[in-house]
Amino acid sequence: MRCLMMVQGVEENAGMPTRAAFERMEAFNAEMEKAGVLLELTGLKPSSQGARVSFDETGRPTVTDGPFGETKELIGGFWIIEVQSLAEAVEWARRVPQGEGLPRRIEVRPYFEAEDFAYLQQQGSSAGTPNGIAEAQFDRLTASVKV
Amino acid sequence: MRCIIMGKATPDTEAGIMPTQEEMDEMGAFMGEMAKAGVLLDGAGLKPSSKSVRVTFDEAGKPTVTDGPFTETKELIAGYVIVEVKSLEEAVDWARRMPGKGARSADIRPFFEAEDFAYLQQQS
Question: Would you call B88 and A49 a contact, using CB atoms and an 8 Å cutoff?
């Protein structure tokens, strides 16, 4: 199963990580990669460089520029991992390096998988699921992040 | 540049209400269009927070595991797409067209890229 492991609780204005913090995180990332669980990872720029689109009840979109106020809740980055169980994902999350400038909260969210959409086949049409389409793109994604 | 477009959770997604075939087809068509335009890198739906877990670290770095659901946050997400675009505006234009119903929102956040970490080479 795939899980999104999201970093939260990092002060947005804390600035870029020190080399020491970066290296501790890199060692952890390397360990996940070696274990064969790591599919993708990235850090996100502060919300001041992002935007938000809000749709009202009628579906009309309004665009708001960042920053967004809820700093402790904002997502600072994420890993996408492939694991056997949620418990295995939690074990990885418990081991995320701690210390100055490193994330204080990790949210682990399992993906819907193909079987979760099996009910749709009873409703007719077999157009690909969003996740199915994404699957085809996945090699391209992982290729693009290898530096 | 790469951006993640994060679709926020709604009462329906948190209640585990699955999309209808029509909603799924609409989303599939939209993702197909993004794929065809060469901007789509990945996309997925996430199970409700009731199926999820949080790990919170205290000052000493000791982890505490909390099972979902998480009700206190406006920042909970229900799915995402990752796009490769020329500008934030281009990502926003795609996000504005994201299918769905009712009041909802999506955050668009650019990725740090390798050059953002070039400063580390000056630190030893």
Answer: yes
Token pair 């049409």 is found at A125
Peptide bond into A67 cis (omega under 30): yes
A110 cis-preceded (ω within 30 degrees of 0):
no
CB contact under 8 A, A111 and B21: no
Q: In tens digits, what is the pLDDT along chain B, a chain of 124 residues?
A: 999 999 999 999 999 999 999 998 899 899 999 999 999 999 999 999 999 999 999 999 999 999 999 986 678 999 999 999 999 999 999 999 999 888 999 999 999 998 999 998 877 6
Beta-strand ranges (E) seen in chain B are 2-8, 40-45, 53-57, 63-67, 77-84, 104-110
Q: How far is B20 from chain A (nearest CA, A)?
A: 7
CB contact under 8 A, A63 and B49: no
**What is the rounded CA–CA span in Å between residue A95 and residue B22?**
41
Local structure of A36: helix, strand or coil:
coil
